[in-house]
Amino acid sequence: MARAQDAHSTLRALAKYGEAILEAHLRNGNRIPDSDDNLGLIETLEHHRLVWRIGESEDLQLKKVLVQFLDHITESERRRYASAQVHILWQQLSELFLEYKEAKKRSALSDIDRLEGEIKECLADVIEDIRNATEAFATYINTGFAYITDLNLRIRENERVIERAGRLITLFESFRIRELAEQAGSDAFLKRLLLRHLPATLESSQKNLSYALNQLRKMLVRMREDQRLSRMVGAFEAHFVNHPGFEPSIDHLDLRQIPEFLNTVAPFQIRGFGDIYDSADDLELIELAAKARTVPAEPESVEAPDNVAGVSFDVAGETEAEENDPVEEAIEELIQLLVDGDLGDRTILASEALASTGLEIDKADWLQAVVSEIESLPDDDQKQIEVIYHQIPHRIYADNVMVSDLTLRHNHAS
Amino acid sequence: MSSPLFERTVTALLQERVICEVSDDELYNYLLMPGNQDAVNRFLGQINRTLRQTSARDAFVCAYLDISDAGTKEAVRQQFRDVANNLEAFVQFLRLVMMLEANDRPVLPGDKLSEGHMLDRIAAAPALESRLRSLAEKKVFQTKRSDSAGQIRAVLSSLEKMGYLKPIGTSGSLYRATGRWSWLYDAMTFIQTHEGIQGAEEAESEQMRLH
Q1: Which residues, by range, are in coiled-coil regions (chain A) (predicted)?
Q2: Which of A154, A246, A263, A271 is the mutation pick for testing B, counting most B CBs within 10 A?
């Protein structure tokens, strides 16, 4: 009864300090630091003989029985060591078979029974560990070693895992299942384990492992490329800091040596005409043509800012009267008088005509304007007017003449 | 008989677009088929052009077959000029994103970039804010905005216009990196080799050899 009570008490202690014990097992190499915080835990574990230590100053170590139990309940940990475990179990299995063979030779029935039981258990363990070992690699692929932040360490871990997977594949290849099966004797269950379950597990594990190995290698290539790119960015960054204003030189670039994928083309527009020569496209082209004219959008009413005076726009169709030029009017009247012949044979001096208008205009401009107006008349009207220039040659430049006035009259000869 | 996908693919390639899974998944998938690659290449070959893949093999570009002609040379030179002139800004952007994501690797095609997420990280770290300010002063990203949100938006939308990012959804604040980054890394690798730019690790090992 006392035993049962002790066992209960131990299990309760394990439950109470479960978290700290697991922490010690998973992260601290089964060691419990000898600190004030752990005083209660240490006392309890010592009381239940679950820890040991070499010296007073050393940390406490979980006892093997407890570690084995923890190994068993923490499957993830077991997976980590599964490949090594498979190897050990396989050796054990081979030894058990040797003993089994020996026992059968001697017809030691009780030993045969015992060994058959042990072989079955060991085989079941091997099958389970093979599965665990390969599953561990799937976990690595799924996480992508994301739990390791430093890229270099991640690469190293990836390399280690690849090595482990390689070792496991070699181990699987070394199994001689058929040889063991031949030693299995007449036990149907043992035969089934050896000839059916173990090969099936091995086959699927090898397949998974090969896939995992391939993925891990790809992952490693990618990580190494990431590392290269990261270093390149770092190198450029440092170069820009050390050489302010640095720009890679383009002018002396030897274009013959650039990698092919880098000589990318300049944009090249591919355009064609609408096929107006093929009547099959008529309907679509007509529709496009109908919409092709751009109709100017109605100007939106924009509110003028406060500091800008209002702007008035021309209204379509609106006319604005232009003021008449009095000089032009006077000349037109004069010319009309001459063309109509109202003056008869009389002549009129241009300067006198100017004086009669009362316009204040330079005489030279007046004379020039009269001549221009006459010259712009239609030929028939022009012929109606005779113009006599009052002129004298220039004193120095004799080819030039100085006009002082014009005598105008109706040309009856026309 | 013309094929719409063939036409769209060739037109996109001749328009200097980098075709990847993010930017044009339909055209990218079309180009993944060897038969389609041949058809496109046969056509491009007649106009002195060819189909190429970036070294990471995640994007297609159109390249000249023969660049001995002066006009072609100038066009290629212009490509490099564009990269060279803006390289410092791109490097600063990549470094900023690496710092924001606390990641050792630069932006890669397919990576998601969130304006909000970047802003949150920057708000928590004044040093990153000054990096962003410096980035927003670069010619290629230049903006008059003085707030971090406006600066990030300006940088990301400039990258979108240049084809480095593609918006996801309609919010305009989520982007995915395109294959143009792969092309940029190839161009940077070429420039690095050409200019003899060494990283800290290489320089260190060089020193070790000399001693």
Answers
A1: 98-125
A2: A263
**Average pLDDT of the residues in B73-97:** 85
Angle, helices B126-136/B115-124, rounded to nearest 10 degrees: 120
Q: What is the pLDDT of residues B88-137, one digit of tens each?
A: 999 999 999 999 887 778 999 999 999 999 999 888 888 889 899 999 98
Task: Write out the two tokens for A140.
Answer: 């690595």
Q: How far apart are CA B147 and CA B132, in angstroms?
A: 10
* Measured distance CA(A153)–CA(A156) in Å, rounded: 5
- Binary contact (A267, B15; C-beta < 8 A): yes
* A179 near B CB under 8 A: no
Query: Which of B174, B190, B194 has the alpha carbon at shortest distance from B182?
Result: B190
Q: Give the pLDDT score at B210.
A: 46
The predicted structure's pLDDT at residue A6: 84
pLDDT digits (tens, 9 = 90+) for A172-229: 777 777 776 776 667 677 777 778 888 888 888 888 888 888 888 988 998 999 899 9
Distance, CA of A156 to CA of A159 (rounded, Å): 5
Q: Is B145 on the interface with A (CB under 8 A)?
A: no
**Pick among B10, B11, B104, B184 to test the A interface (most A CBs inside 10 A):** B104
The pLDDT score that the predictor gives to residue A232 is 92
Q: B186–A262: do the CB atoms touch at under 8 Å?
A: yes
- Residue-wise pLDDT tens digits, A249-264: 766 666 666 666 677 7
Domain B76-197: CATH architecture, name and number where available: Orthogonal Bundle (1.10)
Q: Does domain B4-64 have CATH number 1.25.10?
A: no
Minimum-distance CB partner of B200 among A238, A248, A260: A238
- Spatial separation of the C-alpha atoms in residues B133 and B151, rounded to whole Å: 7
What would the two tokens of residue A332 be?
């037109």
CA dihedral A105, A110, A114, A116 (to 10 degrees): 50
Mean pLDDT by runs of 10 across the 414 residues of chain A is 79 88 79 83 88 76 85 60 72 83 82 84 83 80 76 86 83 74 70 80 85 88 90 91 81 67 70 66 71 58 55 62 81 86 82 85 87 86 87 78 87 74
Asked if the C-beta of B64 comes within 8 angstroms of chain A's C-beta atoms, the answer is: yes
Please check whether residue A302 touches B, CB under 8 A.
no
**Average pLDDT for chain B:** 87
Residue A231 contacts B where some CB pair is shorter than 8 Å: yes
Q: Where does CATH 1.10.10 sit in chain B?
A: 4-64, 76-197
Dihedral in degrees, nearest 10, Cα atoms B12, B18, B21, B26: 10
Strand order in the sheet with A31-32: A31-32, A60-62, A51-52
